[in-house]
Amino acid sequence: MTEKRIPIVEKILNANDRLADRNRGLLDASRTLGLNVMASPGAGKTSLILRTLERLRGRLRLAVIEGDTAPVTLDSEKVLAAGVPAVQVNTGGGCHLDAAMVGDALAQFDLEETDLVIVENVGNLICPAAFRLGTHRNVLVASVTEGDDKPYKYPKMYRNVDALVLNKIDLLPHLDFDADRFRKGVSILNEELAVFPLSCRTGEGLDAWVEWVLAAYSTISARRM
Ligand code: MG
Ligand code: ZN
C-alpha cells in the first residue's frame, strides 16, 4: 500500500488530498475496491482493463472511469460494449486525473451496487504518480516495447505503485528487452512490488493478475468499518 499515514502526526492536507480522502471514504463505506491504472500511452491500459473485465464479469460488479485528455470516447465505448458501466472524464488537455475529477465520476455510479471501480488514468509516467485519487491500489502497466530502462528513468512512478503489469511479453522474442536489468531497476525502487508479466493479446499470465485483483477486493470487502 502506498498511502501510509502516521495518524499522530499532524499534516495539513492540500485540497487534492482532502478530496482523495473523501473518495476513499465513499469507496470504503460501500466496500468497493478502487484501482488506479497508470501507464505511458500505448502500454496497454485499456487492453488490460478489458481483459480484466472479461475475467471478472459475473464474479464482481464492475465499473470503469476513463480518463482522457480529449473528448474522444473510444476507450469508454469499448468498456460499455463489454457491458460494464463507464464514465468518461475529459481532462481538457490536462495530463493527469485528480481527486476532484474522480469524485465527480464516482458520483455517477451506485457504489453500493459496485464491487470494483477501475480508473484508467491519463497516459503519462510523470504527474499521475503525484496525485492521490483515493483509490486503494495503484497499478502501473509497463510494456516490453518501452524498453528495460524505464524504472531508472521514472523512479517516482515505480516507487509509488502496488502492482506492476509488464505487458506484451509475447513480443519478447523480437526485442532486446533485458528482463534482468528491468527487474533489478524495479527491485531497487520497490522491493515489495507485485510484478505480473503478461500478454493481453495471448492471455498468458492474466490469471495471476486477476487473482491479485480478487485478493485486493477480499481485503477491502472484509474490512470492518
Ligand atoms: Mg486507453
Ligand atoms: Zn499532469
Please state roughly what percent of the residues sit in beta strands, choosing from under 5%, 5-15%, 15-25%, 25-35%, 35-45% or over 45%: 15-25%
Return residue spans where pLDDT drops below 50 for at least 5 consecutive residues: 8-12
Oligomer: single chain
If helices are DSSP runs of H or I spanning 4 or more residues, what is the number of helices? 8
Identify the strand order in the major beta sheet.
3-2-4-1-5-6-7
Distance between the termini: 18 Å
What compounds are bound to the protein?
Answer: magnesium ion, zinc ion
Q: Order of helices and strands, N to C? A: HEHEHEHEEHHEHEH
C-alpha Rg, in Å? 17 Å
Mean pLDDT across every amino acid position? 92
Shape descriptor reads globular
What structural category characterises the helix and strand content? alpha/beta
- Range of helix content: 25-40%
List the helices and strands and how they pair.
Elements (H helix, E strand, L loop, with lengths): L14 H15 L3 E7 L5 H12 L5 E7 L5 H8 L4 E5 L8 H8 L9 E5 L16 E7 L6 H4 L1 H5 L3 E5 L11 H11 L4 E4 L8 H17 L3
Parallel strand pairs: 1-4, 1-5, 2-3, 2-4, 5-6, 6-7
Helix pairs in contact: 1-4
The structure holds magnesium ion and zinc ion (ZN).
